[in-house]
Amino acid sequence: MADETLSRYRQSIDNIDAALVFMLAERFKITQAVGAYKAANTLPPADPGREERQIERLRALAKDADLDPEFSEKFLRFIIDEVIRHHEKARGATA
């Protein structure tokens, strides 16, 4: 019985992980388009004001969802840093 329960939990975790990967892939497709737009219009790759607003917004959402805001900030910061790296790369490709 315990093995069946554990197996169901793990299947749910696997499904969530798959959804996260596909959601991240979609997010990066969009941010790559943003990077190309910024590069074509000579806009800076980073927008510190927007980044801070996003972090605060997602910290509040995390708190509402009973998720550690520190964890959510670290996770978002990792994503933002990766997006900026892509934007810088796109900018270099058009230079």
**Helix share bin:** over 70%
Return residue spans where pLDDT drops below 50 for at least 5 consecutive residues. none
Structural class, judged by helices and strands? mainly alpha
Using only CA atoms, what is the Rg? 17 Å
Largest sheet: none
Q: What is the chain-wise order of helices and strands? A: HHH
What is the overall pLDDT average? Answer: 92
What would you say this structure looks like, in words?
By secondary structure, this protein is mostly helical. Helix content is 86%, strand content 0%. The chain contains three helices and no strands. The chain has helices at residues 2-40, 48-64, 69-94. The radius of gyration is 17 Å and the shape is elongated. The N and C termini lie far apart (62 Å). The mean pLDDT is 92.
What is shown here, in short?
With 95 residues, the chain is mainly α. 86% of the residues lie in helices and 0% in strands.
